[in-house]
Design a protein that fits this description.
With 252 residues, this protein is of the alpha/beta class. It has helices at 2-22, 28-50, 92-105, 122-140, 189-203, 217-236; strands spanning 61-67, 71-78, 85-88, 108-115, 149-156, 159-166, 172-176, 206-213. Helices cover 44% and strands 22% of the residues. Helix 1 runs antiparallel to helix 2 (28-50) and helix 4 packs parallel to helix 5 (189-203). It binds manganese (II) ion.
């Protein structure tokens, strides 16, 4: 009723503004302001309902902290963001990967990881993926109304990756690459695999990553991270036609 009334009010405002505008009535600015106010209040009510047309009422956000002898991580995210990120892991290439992950998933992401880089990048990458997985799972909550499945074919010049994800609550990683697939100059492909394994284990998702072909190690890693981002963007999206949890078990 409230929504219907506000739409009627808005339409009335706009009609009045239109009619009055045509005959150049003096209080036109006041009416214009009134029309803007009506539009804004409609918009705000839609936001409170959960982003016009979705069923999500709660914000799908999460903040996580994790500290061990190897890494110290603070991470926060918003599933319904616009791809804004602040990333600081101490590994330039990994920062590049997480930045493009945020941009292409539209998940807002803030990450600060201080890891034992005097040893190597392994703990920093793996533990950041653990916390990212935890945060994504927490932000998804009961998973009511989500799309659940997502996939992407991701080209990067000569490289093509395929990523398929199911937010199934059953952790599994398939990571398939052709023999002797190249690594980026400062980021072994095995680290990308470790990232995927830790993400799948802690998000508790089924993640299939397949490098169909590719030569350049930078392109290969980038295609995989972007592929995960695009697949996840679809899987976490709210589908307004989904009633409850998208599983015949009624739980995910
Ligand atoms: Mn790049």
């Amino acid at each position: 009723m409230v929504a219907a009334a506000s739409i009627l009010t808005r339409n009335y405002c706009e009609s009045l503004f239109f009619v009055v505008g045509k005959i150049d009535f003096p209080p036109i600015k006041a009416l214009s302001a009134w029309s803007c106010f009506c539009k804004a209040s409609c918009h705000n009510r839609a936001r409170k309902r959960g982003c016009a047309g979705t069923k999500s009422v709660m914000a799908r956000t999460s903040s996580q902290k994790r500290k061990t002898a190897e890494t110290d991580i603070v991470l926060s995210l918003d599933l319904d963001g616009s791809g804004n990120s602040t990333i600081e892991t101490g590994i330039g290439f990994f920062d590049h990967m997480l930045t493009l992950f945020s941009r292409h998933s539209l998940i807002d992401l803030q990450v600060k990881t201080m890891g034992d880089l005097h040893i190597d990048a392994h703990h920093t990458v793996e533990d950041t993926a653990i916390v990212l997985g935890d945060a994504l799972r927490a932000a998804l909550g009961s998973k009511e109304g989500i799309t659940r499945y997502g996939h992407a074919y991701l080209p990067m010049d000569e490289t093509l990756a395929r990523v398929v994800i199911d937010l199934s609550n059953r952790p599994h990683l398939e990571f398939r690459t052709p023999p002797n697939a190249a690594s980026a100059p400062n980021f072994p492909l095995t680290l990308t695999e470790e990232f995927c394994r830790a993400l799948a284990s802690n998000l508790r998702c089924n993640l299939h990553v397949e490098l169909l072909y590719g030569r350049d190690g930078h392109h290969i890693a980038e295609a995989i991270f972007k592929g995960i981002a695009r697949a996840l963007r679809v899987a976490v999206a709210i589908d307004p036609r989904v009633k409850g949890v998208p599983s015949t078990k009624e739980a995910l």
